[in-house]
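Entry 12.
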Amino acid sequence: MACQFTPIQLLQWFRWHQKLLKKTLKLIGSLFVLLSVSSQSANEAIVLPELGDNSSGLMSAKDEKALGQSWLKSFRGSVMLESDPIIFEYLENLLFRLASYSQLKDKDLHLVVVKNPNINAFAVPGGVIGVNSGLLLHAETEGQLASVLSHELAHLSQRHFSRSVEAAKGTSLTTLAGMLAGIALAIANESDAAQAAIIGSQAAALDAKLRYSRIHEKEADRIGMKTLVDAGYSANSAAAMFKQMLNASRLYGNKTPEFLLTHPITESRIADARNRARQYNSPTSKLHLNYLLIKTRAYVLAQTSNKNSITHFSSQLEKFSIKRSIENSSSEALYAEAARYGLALAYQRDQQWRKAKKTLAPLLEEIPGKITYSLLDIAIDSGSGKTKIAENRLRDLSGLTPNNYAISMQLAAVLLKNNKAGDAQKVLSNLAKTRPAQADIWYALAESQGLAGDINGLHQSRAEFFLLRGNLSKAKMHYRQALHLSQKDFQRSAKIKQRLSFIKGLEQQARSF
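Predicted 3D structure (tokens):
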């Protein structure tokens, strides 16, 4: 693909859109020679060069952590994130489980889930792992999903980002200008032009850079597979996932999925994965009900029409129920159970309460204590007007599992419906203490504080929300308003001043980039 613009023109374009790209500038340090990370809008992929990992000695672990956190704050404010607590918590639990078997020394990880149907996952120095919700739609088994996460964990553990920076120390200013312009175009959703800018500006050094990144990919494949197997998954899951990606890439036409731009999948790479898998005495690939339910949930939430989901899962339920009766297969039984859950969820989202209740009933009878089923059943009660019953059931669940992300968020929402903003505030305040990096919790907490009349608390929660999204000016504004309201409260004033001092430090850090 030929580049349509000169580096100077692209840089001028970049400066012209400086206001739009203010957050992007915070991501770029003087050492940035980026691999490829993807940031997306809800409906169309946005391609950002990836920050692979950390390795040499060029950057200290402390610097990498600061860089990763700075990037993450800006990234949260630039893309649409998946806000479903059930999906997020599942991915988080899987990631931390895999990390415990990885070579990572610092297992302080930060997960970010992008609401986008395209295939992508990425690793950013400082322990940030990103996943597109679309990855759930393409991975057929939990093992396949785990193979991708294990691969990204390997990038982090081998510190590939710093090693890439060191290998590219000779990058010219012209190349950097072109890459900056490419980032600009990407943020502005001009994906094709962005890709052209990046490729065009890197032409002189592209071959050496690709050779170096291929070494990283092979290393991540090898180490990632060991993590995968040690965690109890089939080694063949990696090759199966590669095959899924290769098949999916043929459906994209000229718009190659972001993951495949930075992790090129070829038949030889699939063959390498299969050969490597033979070295392991790993279990055979199997289906996990929890994964099928999460995959199903991701499918329903990604649809623009609940009617389409109803049609889809009605057909799936019938097909798998027939197969189960003919073949008596346990795998078909799991697929049928997931299809039933998907149909009940689609009915609930379409406000067909009776059908949702009836469809879900067999699942509740089969596994009465399963939280995924219980939360959907309670959501049906709440939606159909039985908010008091929903509140009592959620309080019971919360008592059994305190500060559970999904339970607490649903309980807070029901409490607000029942005009109990103060109670909702308490639930969310406790949750925020255990999950201070979840922006959606602070957003909901601010809402409940406003309704409860706690204006000071509202400003502090909004400040934390904007801080997590990289908007330091708004965070500072809300903290200053909170400080003004706290003049007679010495303890609270001291805490607010401490946060303002922290924000000032972040601003100075951003200016040093």
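Annotation: The first strand starts at residue 37 and ends at 40. Residues 206-230 form the longest helix (25 residues).
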